[in-house]
């Protein structure tokens, strides 16, 4: 899951000013303590924010979500990435930004355009599939999953999406094929039996209105698969997320009862299903207490963009925590903001170290500042760093 404009990316670089991050960490305070079951076998879960009734009680607080697996170390949405995130101790694996194939299978890719995440451009037999399409109002040229059968997609191999920043990940280009969501469910079952505890996953329905208009609705095959593997109940070990609230409501109508999370874009953006239906509300409206109350009528959580938790100025320096955590918890919603990455290129200015955008900054301090606001969980490309920060946060 990622905001379309790549959240947290800044072009301005500078030296780290860690004092500001430390001040935010100290000022934000820690949430009230309460015991929780910790299926990962780590330090017992710490604070449980007041009012987060929808948060699964089996997960620690804060819980760590491996963003597209451990995509800081392996090409995203591959079994190499998912397995590494699990082995690193992530509590939940974002195994699946779900997009359909031409023949109706759900596969795990960040977007329907697979130009940057597979070797499709190297396959001469698919040269004629390149197309320009309008997805949620934006023109995109590339190769799209809905123009391929599953058998055809299985001939492709995954590659690193941002090789200029993560050159080391290119070592694994060509190693893994595109995973189907059913294969993810089978993997989670195997790993759950091996570990003696459920493997939590966090799939997202991608561009559901766009695909529904193509006759390739995502929710029906998703609900069918969840029922087949017993993951459709309220206590099943998965969370479901979407930028389009109507997609989550449709899943509920299909009998899927597991917790649902509304993803939130930049404040000025309208969810695409709102655009299609004529709903004038923007993300800014949904961030208000009345908007959060509306979300709580059909979902249990929200997935905000990081600056909606702790504001940043126009240069990318961290400011003060907003009231969103307090407001969401008051509405009974849990929060899982996105996405912290270790590289300078993705960190607030205060946490960058040196001038190389691909070098690691002080992401540990940024994690702790975010945890201190009382969030319930956090997406990271680097789940090992997120786990370490969560353990240190709980100890203090």
TrEMBL record:
Keywords: Glycerol metabolism, Hydrolase, Signal
Annotated stretches, region: Disordered: 33-58
Keyword Repeat in record: no
Chemical reaction(s) catalysed: a sn-glycero-3-phosphodiester + H2O = an alcohol + sn-glycerol 3-phosphate + H(+)
Domain GP-PDE: residue ranges: 62-390
Listed Low complexity bias regions: 39-57
The protein's Enzyme Commission number: 3.1.4.46
Leader peptide range in chain numbering: 1-33
UniProt-listed PROSITE patterns: GP_PDE, TAT
Entry annotated with the keyword Nucleotide-binding: no
Similarity annotation: Belongs to the glycerophosphoryl diester phosphodiesterase family.
Name of the featured protein: glycerophosphodiester phosphodiesterase
Native source species: Streptomyces albospinus
């Amino acid at each position: 899951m990622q905001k379309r404009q790549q959240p947290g990316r800044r072009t301005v670089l500078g030296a780290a000013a860690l004092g500001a991050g430390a001040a935010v960490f100290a000022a934000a305070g820690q949430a009230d303590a309460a015991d929780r079951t910790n299926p990962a076998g780590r330090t017992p879960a710490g604070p449980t924010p007041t009012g987060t009734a929808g948060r699964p009680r089996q997960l620690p607080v804060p819980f760590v979500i491996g963003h597209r697996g451990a995509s800081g170390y392996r090409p995203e949405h591959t079994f190499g990435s998912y397995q590494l995130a699990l082995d690193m101790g992530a509590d939940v694996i974002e195994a699946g930004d779900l997009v359909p194939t031409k023949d109706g299978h759900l596969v795990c890719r960040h977007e329907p355009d697979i130009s940057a995440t597979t070797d499709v451009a190297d396959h001469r037999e698919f040269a004629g599939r390149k197309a320009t399409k309008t997805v949620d109002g934006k023109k995109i040229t590339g190769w799209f999953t809905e123009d391929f059968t599953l058998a055809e997609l299985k001939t492709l191999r995954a590659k690193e999406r941002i090789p200029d920043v993560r050159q080391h990940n290119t070592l694994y280009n060509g190693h893994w094929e595109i995973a189907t969501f059913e294969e993810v469910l089978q993997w989670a079952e195997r790993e759950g039996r091996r570990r003696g505890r459920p493997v939590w996953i966090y799939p997202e329905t991608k561009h559901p209105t766009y695909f529904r208009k193509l006759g390739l609705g995502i929710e029906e095959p998703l609900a069918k698969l969840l029922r087949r593997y017993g993951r459709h109940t309220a206590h099943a070990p998965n969370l479901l997320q979407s930028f389009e609230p109507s997609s989550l409501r449709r899943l509920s109508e299909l009998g899927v009862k597991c917790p649902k999370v509304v993803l939130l874009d930049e404040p000025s953006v309208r969810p695409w299903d709102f655009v299609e239906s004529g709903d004038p509300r923007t993300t800014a409206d949904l961030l208000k207490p009345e908007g959060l109350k509306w979300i709580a009528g059909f979902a249990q959580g929200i997935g905000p963009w990081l600056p909606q938790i702790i504001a940043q100025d126009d240069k990318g320096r961290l400011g003060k925590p907003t009231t969103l955590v307090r407001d969401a918890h008051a509405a009974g919603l849990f929060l899982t903001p996105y996405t912290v990455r270790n590289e300078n290129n993705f960190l607030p200015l205060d946490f960058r170290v040196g001038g190389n955008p691909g070098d690691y900054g002080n992401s540990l301090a940024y994690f702790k500042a975010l945890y201190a606001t009382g969030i319930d969980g956090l997406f990271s490309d680097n789940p090992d760093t997120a786990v370490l920060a969560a353990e240190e946060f709980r100890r203090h």
